[in-house]
Amino acid sequence: MNKSKHFSWEAMLCVVLIASLALGRGLSPDFLGASNFSNLLADFTEIALMALPMTLIIVAAEIDLSVASVMGMSSALMGVLWHMGLPMPAVIVTCLVAGTLAGLFNGVVIVKFALPSLAVTIGTMALFRGCAYLLLGDQAIADFPGNYTLFGISNVGDSFIPQPFVIVIIAAILFTVLLQATPFGRSLYAIGSNQTAAHFSGINVARTKLRLFVLSGFMSALAGVIYTLRFSSARGDNGEGFELSVVAAVLFGGVSIFGGKGSLVGVLLSLVIIGVLKNALTLSDVSSEVLTIVTGLLLLSSVLVPNLLARWRESRQRRALAAA
Amino acid sequence: MTTPATPPRLELRHASKRFGEVRALIDASLTLRRGEVHALLGENGAGKSTLVKILAGVHQPDGGELLVDGQPCRFARPSAAIAAGIAVIYQEPTLFPDLSIAENIYMGRQPLDRIGRIRYDVMEQAVEEMLVSLGVQLKAAQLVRGLSIADQQVVEIAKALSLNANVLIMDEPTAALSKPEVERLFAIAERLRDAGVAILFITHRLEEVFRLTQRITIMRDGAAVHFAATSEMDHDSIVAKMVGRDLATYYPKVDVVPGEVALSVNKLTRRGVFKNISFDVRRGEIVALAGLVGAGRSEVARAIFGIDPVDGGEVLVQGKRLQLGKPALAVNAGLALVPEDRRQQGLALDLPIARNASLTVLARLGRHGLISANTERQLAAHWGGKLKLKAHTMDVAAGTLSGGNQQKVVLGKWLATNPHVLIIDEPTRGIDVGAKAEVYQTLTDLVQAGMAVLMISSELPEVLGMADRVLVMCEGRITADIPRSEANEERIMAAALGQAEQPLRRAA
Ligand SMILES: Nc1ncnc2c1ncn2[C@@H]1O[C@H](COP(=O)(O)OP(=O)(O)OP(=O)(O)O)[C@@H](O)[C@H]1O
Ligand SMILES: [Mg+2]
Description:
By secondary structure, chain A is mainly alpha-helical. Chain A has a single domain, classed as ABC transporter involved in vitamin B12 uptake, BtuC, CATH 1.10.3470. Chain A has helices at 9-27, 34-43, 45-59, 67-83, 88-112, 117-136, 146-153, 163-181, 183-193, 195-200, 205-231, 242-252, 264-283, 288-323. The radius of gyration of chain A is 21 Å and the shape is globular. Chain B has 18 helices and 20 strands. The interface between A and B is medium-sized, with 25 and 35 residues. Adenosine-5'-triphosphate binds next to strand 2, helix 1 and helix 15 of chain B.
């Protein structure tokens, strides 16, 4: 998939990961401790859940900026439904269905009217966030039943793996298989690379895109449910701004914003790196502004570094040939 | 004007160029003089386009030297080549569709008045004069959108002339043109040649070489292997130099007894595009759809395949009615469409060959719904081998292949579906004589194995050489249905131009 055999973005991410682990260790002695590690893992649950479908969407040369708003909407809905007295399982299922419908709405508008997903999901980003506020106003609902909130904060047995993280692992495996080894996943690369040729090849482009956005809606709602349980708090502004972190993680993972290129392995590595860096900086009491700056720098470097490397390689090659 | 003492306008000596591990050029040389049309010939992947891109400043050679008017010179970027008077016209014109012809020609250097406003009147008048001098019926204020490829090429030529180019390089300009359009282009080229312009002309149609050019450079595997005056060469000697061997029979047409009807098209109509199109294609039969570019042939093919909508009519495949408008259903029913524009419609250029080859069979390729990269590679290698695809590995991006090899990937990806009916739109556009012979051989093998082939083609020799039956379209209607034994150039051209001949024999 990579432009060159001599250089793989995934390999570079591994190096960056080791460097950031070392940095974390240097900044704080607690860094590699088990309890901190489970914090670290728990913290990227939601971003990871949304980054998985986002990877597929960006490979297909589309984008979904409404993910964090769907997440907020499902969180708010969860609070409202719980207060209406619905049993918890029904609350969760309804939230997931609502998120899926939100994704379906995105998909239908994009596919039926042949509109760019960037424009449509900027619109629905505001729309769904508005719905979230409409549902809950600026109040928070925190009285969820204990056995559910416990799921959000406890670990698997005696290990350092938080329970919500198990969902991330399962989802990551499913999405990897989906993208790399199924006809659906393969057709995403074709669509992202040349939509017309994909259409001429008998690939149902419209249906594929529709499914992507439905999938994204479902996963965002799932992220909203887990986030609500983890913090035991349903709020309309939950997850505000997460869409940027999600897109940043996907691009830093080596997925081309122009579509057609990228792998989930890269995105998973990039998620871990971002999680590690965030955690290390938080431990050393660095302000949240610095965190934002670091995310921005990562994003920039993911676009710049491959470009610079390609230029450097070309000039080196030319020099070698000139010398020969 | 040209005396023996003047150095050639352009000279390339022993140029080499690598792309990673691919050696596109090894030892390319070319001498281009004023007032000549020079043919650059070679098989697909011989390095012609790479040589052109070096002359255009798009690529920088790794070795060798370039002389312009006898002076050593190096083009670091395209603007340097333009400044040296070299203009390149690529096969796909690169114009702005929503601007007028005049704006396109003067893009970036519009004449201004004192306060910096564009002088449209000056611009359009200059362009108008230029278009008249080229002898074409175009208006300066006309939008480029909607112009045929031939007209767009003329606009590109006008742009080159307005830049005072005196070297004009045309990379396969005639590949997408119909016969009258080719003639018009040649008339323009001859006029420019007589005015002292040096023209480099790339084509895979050898009859055009004899019609237009004075000298020939033949390339093989990245090296220039033969220089000669056109008058010293004939068809067979050129082919032998290009391919490095003698080519056996060119059209390996065999007689097969047509089987049952595989594709039946009934009164297919799309308002304003084509009307009441009816014909059958039987197993073992090659039916050619001839006509001028723009007669609606590709549109019919796309409608049958479900890409374009229709207003009426029906299509039967193997006797079963096909629900129109869904390419996926057409594929399942056993239809395959090799589209006319392989870069836009046929290939995902950034993806590896293997990924392209598997696109049409994704659903069938998997085991338990899962696909492995190895199966894909094997599939691509299988068809690549059959079609003699020239590629380093199956993992290189399809976009780096030469034009003819890209065509083979598209063909292979469709043959992989094992279709009952193959619709192939301009099967040999842009591919070399050797590859053409291979494509013809493949088609012959396929019909012998019982496939039905509908071949859209603007190349009359190909139509006459390969088709069992020729349908001719003119302005959205079928105007003739000619059996092989009665087909000849005059009858096809007459029907293509809509000149009534004997009463139409309807396809049953
Ligand atoms: N950007 C590139 N990267 C890698 N390989 C390339 C690139 N451009 C060309 N090549 C390779 O260089 C060789 C020469 O290609 P080129 O396009 O010059 O052939 P050509 O003579 O124009 O063929 P055709 O008649 O099919 O157009 C081919 O093997 C091609 O795959
Ligand atoms: Mg070429």
